[in-house]
Request: fold
Amino acid sequence: MKCSHCRREAIYFQRHSGRHLCKKHFLYDFEKRVRYAVKKYRMIESGDRIAIALSGGKDSVALTHVLMNLYGSRKDLEFFAITIDEGIKGYRPPTVKIAKKITKELGIDHVVVSFEENFGMTLDEMVKLGDKKPCTYCGVFRKYLLNKTAREMGANKLATAHNLDDETQTILLNFLQADIERLARLIPQRVQKGLVMRIKPFRELYEKEILIYCIVNSLPIDMNECPYSHFPVRAMVRDFLYDFENAYPGRKFSVMRSFETLIPCLREMFPQIDLNKCEKCGEPTPSKVCQACVLLEELKKAKDSNS
Ligand code: SF4
Ligand SMILES: [Zn+2]
Ligand SMILES: [Zn+2]
Reply:
């Protein structure tokens, strides 16, 4: 099949637009949509120092690559990458290696921060000791370290590789679970003291397009799944959205647009609150003690009672 814009062979059929795209026009479209999202939500502005959350998985590798491609030469911007090593045997080491390789190739500063160094134990050890789900420990401690490291290294923005599929799943999940407060956390450009502002330049791109971007740019990709990933409800929502999108291409954009229409109401319902400083570690928290310190205390107790 020929490209809808030129005479080259198409490599991708973009169902929501009905266009066949060759490599050149796929990349043009991909970069244009990243730029569009960045501009629409004012994600990147002159003077920004941006930390990229780089796990080494395909999405974050593509994010690092495209950001450096589009904005890396701008003198008024600074970028560096942070990789969190949770300590998941067999799964994380290969992606840390990829993260090191890609940052070296792109010439950006890169820091690897581990659970073990910061909390005295790996995620694998936490899972053995504690009674919570692995993703609870992983999510809380990863967010904590990303924010702390980004802030301490002078970043005012933290770029994550969440894509259209991730975002629409989360939007729908929050509706289905009647968790509207959590839905409000997805509002772009939410600023809270002590929290580095999150930006999501891939929020208008399908996951499969990110994979194709990696392939056409010969980026290193690791397709292994985390051994702890087990999200039955999210998987149902993902499959539903997949089928819906398949039958009615472009509906994930509709979910996103509906959410955006609700943003003014969500802002009113859940105004931003001033966060406290955690009594134990000084990190921002809506409570007296942050969630990371609470979990760490539980784990330390479990460790002591085991020894
Ligand atoms: S699936 Fe694995 S990497 Fe993802 S949050 Fe859960 S434990 Fe962490
Ligand atoms: Zn073309
Ligand atoms: Zn704390």
